[in-house]
Amino acid sequence: MRFPAFFDAMPALDVPFPEDVVTSHAVCSDAGLVAFFRFHEDMDLPPHAHGPQWGTVIAGEILFTIGGETRAYRPGDSYDIPAGVEHGARIRAGTIVVDVFAEADRYRLKAR
Asked: Fewest CB atoms within 10 A around its CB: which of 64, 69, 83, 97?
């Protein structure tokens, strides 16, 4: 699955992972941040917490631990992470997700 070509005009996010591991496109407003992530390699996301987040898996698989409970998420599955709840994940190469953050400044947009 590929994102439509017009996604290329959307800014990328300044995430703390190399672009050969994960790439992104984003839409941002004062109300929040919508991020489209594509994972090119298996990746471990260390446990962390922040404001509310909702996401859905488009392709691939994430083994997510949210608030101490671990579950596999596959295409069509969504997750809802309340503010302040610790979460981390093992993300398989080829996974594509859409994440929505209540914090508009969760990640900075990369300069073009």
From this structure: 69
CA–CA gap between residue 30 and residue 14 (Å, rounded): 18
Give pLDDT tens digits for 24-48.
999 999 999 999 999 999 999 999 9
Per-residue pLDDT tens over the stretch 36-92: 999 999 999 999 999 999 999 999 999 999 999 999 999 999 999 999 999 999 999
Q: Are 42 and 59 in contact (CB under 8 A)?
A: no
What single-letter DSSP state applies at residue 51? S
Distance in angstroms (rounded) separating the CA atoms of residues 75 and 47: 22
- The C-alpha atoms of residue 68 and residue 37 are separated, in whole angstroms, by 24
- In degrees, rounded to 5, the angle at the alpha carbon of residue 62 between the alpha carbons of residues 10 and 95 is 40
Can you read off the two tokens belonging to residue 110? 């990369």
